[in-house]
Amino acid sequence: MANNIKTFDPLSNFNKAIKTLEKNNIRTTKQRMVLAKLLFEKGRRHISAEELFDEVKENDRKISLATIYNTLRQFTSLGLIREIVVDQNKSLYCTNNESHYHLYIEDEGKIIDIPTKNIDLNIASMPACLNLHNIDVIVRIRTLKEKNIN
Ligand SMILES: [Zn+2]
Asked: Per residue of the chain (150 residues), what is the pLDDT tens digit?
């Protein structure tokens, strides 16, 4: 019987990222390698630039926040990660390359992947000159908390 279960292989995502950089003639600098490793070695997740900056420090590396922003932007444009703009001042970066939507728990700042089949979208047909490129969906929810009266 064929084994169709996909197991998570952090190395393959890292290698894919490095290959993509090379294919696009982007130098695989030490900093880009470190950031790619940190981003992908922990599997599917959503991380902000600031959180990645903290992980860099925890790993005794020195990479500026500006470099992290630039690299995240670059990785996003190469399709290695997805940027989720949760509000005007906050973006999270998603390392899950498979097609999916997002559930954002606003008061916890937490984001969860949801399968695209869970949301039925009725997209109007496109004029022939346009091509559907991508659909980003963020479902925003809040936890029910008892409000303090005072
Ligand atoms: Zn995601």
From this structure: 455 566 666 668 889 999 999 999 999 999 999 999 999 988 899 999 999 999 999 999 999 999 999 999 999 999 999 999 998 889 999 999 889 999 999 999 899 999 999 998 888 888 889 988 888 999 999 998 776 655
Q: Does domain 10-141 have CATH number 1.10.10.10?
A: yes
- Residue 58 C-alpha to ligand 1 middle, in angstroms? 24
Q: SS3 for 113?
A: strand
Cα(150) to centroid of ligand 1, in Å?
A: 38
Rg value, the chain, Cα: 18
pTM metric for this prediction: 0.83
> How much distance in Å is there from the Cα of 32 to the middle of ligand 1?
21
- Which residue matches tokens 């599997």? 43
